[in-house]
Write a structure and sequence with these properties.
Blueprint lengths: L2 E9 L2 H17 L3 E5 L15 E6 L2 H8 L4 H11 E9 L4
Antiparallel strand pairs: 1-3, 1-4, 2-3
Length: 97
């Protein structure tokens, strides 16, 4: 069953965040993940939630996502994100048809 990581990201330092954006895609792909949304325009809706930048990742399973998040190659890249931005997020399990 696919799993989705949905994040709202407020970038505080674009220089560092751009370095993160260059390094992370190959690691995500290595662990079977792919971007569904990566910072596109956010359209107004009837909600009190106002995310700054939205990123949605899809992984085949929670095991794939956990392997990515806990991988040795992602740890230093994640530190870049922690330095550059504030992130809120959650994970949603997909629905198999």
């Amino acid at each position: 069953m696919s799993v989705y990581s949905i994040s709202s990201i407020e970038v505080k330092n674009w220089e560092i965040y751009e370095e993160y954006m260059k390094k992370v895609p190959a690691i995500i792909e290595k662990y079977g993940g792919r971007y569904l949304v990566r910072g596109g325009e956010i359209l107004a809706d009837d909600t009190s939630w106002h995310p700054k930048r939205v990123v949605i990742l899809e992984f085949p399973t929670t095991e794939h996502m956990d392997s990515f998040r806990n991988s040795e190659e992602y740890k230093p890249v994640a530190e870049l994100r922690h330095k550059a931005a504030e992130t809120e997020g959650f994970v949603v399990l997909g629905h198999d048809s």
